[in-house]
Description:
10 strands, 45% helix, three-stranded antiparallel β-sheet, binds magnesium ion, Phosphorylase Kinase, domain 1, single chain, binds 2-acetamido-2-deoxy-1-O-phosphono-alpha-D-glucopyranose, globular, 12 helices, 2 domains, Aminoglycoside 3'-phosphotransferase, Chain: A, domain 2, alpha+beta
Amino acid sequence: MKEKFTELAEIFGLPGEITAIDLISNGNINTTYDVHMVHEGKVYRYVFQKLNIFVFKSPKRIMKNIEKITAHIADKLEAAGKSRDCVMHFAHTAEGKNYYMDEQGFWRISEYVPGSVTYNSCEDLDKLRSAGQAFGEFQTMLADFDATALYETIPNFHNTRSRIAVFFRHVNEDPCGRVEEVREEIEKIRAFKDMAIRLNEWIDSQELPLRVTHNDTKINNVLFDAETGEAKTVIDLDTVMPGLVAHDFGDAIRYAANTAAEDEKDLSLVHLDMDRFRAFTEGFLSEVKSALTPLEVQTLALGAFTMTAELAVRFLDDYITGDAYFKTLYRGHNLVRTRCQIRLAEEMLSHMDEMNGIVSDVSGIAF
Length: 367
Ligand code: GN1
Ligand code: MG
């Protein structure tokens, strides 16, 4: 590992010697390392990442997207009198590329943002409000970004209807003989699928606008300032593509307002925390509200349900097709994740009025 990373450091022109390599284990797709290098007596930290090219079929296009997005955001930050450093920086090779590809994989290196921390779960309402603000601000900064300049890195990524259609096709094909053991979960998905495709209908009728969205708004994709606790910046820009505001809001709620982990086995611990819901909503709306249509505001809570249902479908789809997509730590991990998401989706359905009430209250829009 050290030998390989030393070679990469040279290719990307990073000075110094590697003194520590730690695996950062919280991503479900890419493989990420926290790397320390010492140069002239000073420690520099970098994030080395090996992209999952089974998931991301055109990694060079992702890096092209990222280059454009980060440049756009850096310009915005500068124009607002802030530091350009509050956006991710990727190292470049001598040929000016922000990636390197060899027979072992597709590599990229970003600078570690000094003084930053991430959280896999967060009960602190101030931090959640601040995370909501960060994701809201991210969208606002990209509001004038030309969406046609972006490659669609994973087609139909949050096309819930297409996700469900693919899932039921796989249920019929039953490629790994696992369908019989998950009949109950399949029926639960069948029961809420009509509700889960509502947003698609509004996209089709062009009542909901597509914007440039982040599409992977888990709380661990926010870098917080270790000292102040404020969100500093948003990371993981691999899936920045056209999408709905409700997708970004909803995915964040799915993850951050769950009282348990995404893969909690004890379903009695899985609940939607309304205080966390409100805190995130306050932060998010404070940034984006003025740009949203009334229908976009009205669909935020539905977005939380939709994203939770979609993840239940994606995890179960991966389980019945042989666990090829998400990293799993044990057999049945995707099934555990599925059950947790189904439980949460059901709870969201029964709290829909309450969620809408909070969105209405915070936004000042009655519906
Ligand atoms: C994956 O790797 P990570 O944790 O950033 C996935 C997201 C899911 C998430 C569920 C490209 O994100 O869509 O919501 O797992 N990313 C991709 O934890 O599929
Ligand atoms: Mg991600």
